[in-house]
């Protein structure tokens, strides 16, 4: 049973992957990018996405802080170069612009509406101000706080972005619950900083017992019940 003592006042979420269809959109974009270079080297798009993500974490640690738009393009270029996949400058722009089109997973709007009946909602995201605004709008549910890496000048899993967020919202970590899909970027931080986490395991992956405690759910459908909200219309 999830511990609601102390009772949280804010439920925070990761955005990309947790709330919106990050993986689905990028896999489609990577497939299309490779289709546009007939006869060239082809790599499974899931493998390409994993490589892209590894480069992203590397560039996100750089100082001074890089905007995510730069991180994204550098990571994509390095991933494509690693496998010898051909590309043009226009490919970077097309894939990068796809971020703005990412809408919610099917269950997300209804879940957020239920949670708003009792809690304030926040998003902590490894993104820029002018990118995340498009995804928040596509959720179709008002969000009380949106904390970006650009504003905090740090990317998850750095404690800096979480501490910045809690200070900006005027709460302690004990007054929050964080809901996220990434074990590395989010559940690790929940464990190390000592606040409650809910892992959304959409891909059926193995968790990390070193970063317990966290509650595992396959998607957001069970979050309202977990947080004490049952039987209310979405």
TrEMBL record:
<dbReference type="GO" id="GO:0019120">
    <property type="term" value="F:hydrolase activity, acting on acid halide bonds, in C-halide compounds"/>
</dbReference>
<dbReference type="InterPro" id="IPR006328">
    <property type="entry name" value="2-HAD"/>
</dbReference>
<dbReference type="Pfam" id="PF00702">
    <property type="entry name" value="Hydrolase"/>
</dbReference>
<dbReference type="InterPro" id="IPR023214">
    <property type="entry name" value="HAD_sf"/>
</dbReference>
<dbReference type="InterPro" id="IPR051540">
    <property type="entry name" value="S-2-haloacid_dehalogenase"/>
</dbReference>
<dbReference type="InterPro" id="IPR036412">
    <property type="entry name" value="HAD-like_sf"/>
</dbReference>
<dbReference type="InterPro" id="IPR006439">
    <property type="entry name" value="HAD-SF_hydro_IA"/>
</dbReference>
<keyword id="KW-0378">Hydrolase</keyword>
<protein>
    <submittedName>
        <fullName>Haloacid dehalogenase type II</fullName>
    </submittedName>
</protein>
């Amino acid at each position: 049973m999830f511990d609601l003592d102390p009772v949280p006042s804010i439920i925070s979420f990761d955005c990309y992957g947790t709330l919106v269809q990050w993986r689905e959109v990028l896999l489609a974009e990577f497939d299309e990018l490779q289709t546009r270079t007939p006869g060239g080297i082809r790599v499974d798009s899931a493998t390409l996405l994993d490589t892209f993500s590894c480069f992203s974490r590397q560039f996100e640690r750089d100082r001074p802080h890089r905007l995510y738009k730069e991180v994204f393009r550098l990571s994509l270029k390095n991933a494509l170069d690693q496998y010898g996949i051909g590309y043009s400058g226009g490919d970077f722009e097309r894939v990068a612009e796809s971020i703005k089109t990412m809408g919610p997973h099917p269950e997300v709007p209804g879940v957020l509406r239920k949670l708003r009946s009792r809690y304030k909602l926040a998003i902590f995201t490894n993104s820029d101000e002018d990118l995340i605004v498009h995804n928040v709008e596509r959720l179709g549910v008002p969000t009380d706080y949106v904390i970006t890496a650009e504003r905090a000048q740090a990317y998850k899993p750095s404690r800096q972005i979480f501490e910045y967020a809690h200070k900006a919202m005027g709460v302690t970590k004990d007054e929050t619950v964080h809901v996220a899909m990434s074990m590395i970027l989010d559940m690790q931080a929940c464990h190390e900083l000592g606040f409650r986490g809910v892992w959304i395991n959409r891909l059926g992956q193995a968790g990390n017992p070193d970063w317990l405690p966290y509650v595992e759910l396959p998607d957001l459908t069970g979050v309202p019940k977990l947080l004490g909200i049952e039987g209310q219309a979405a």
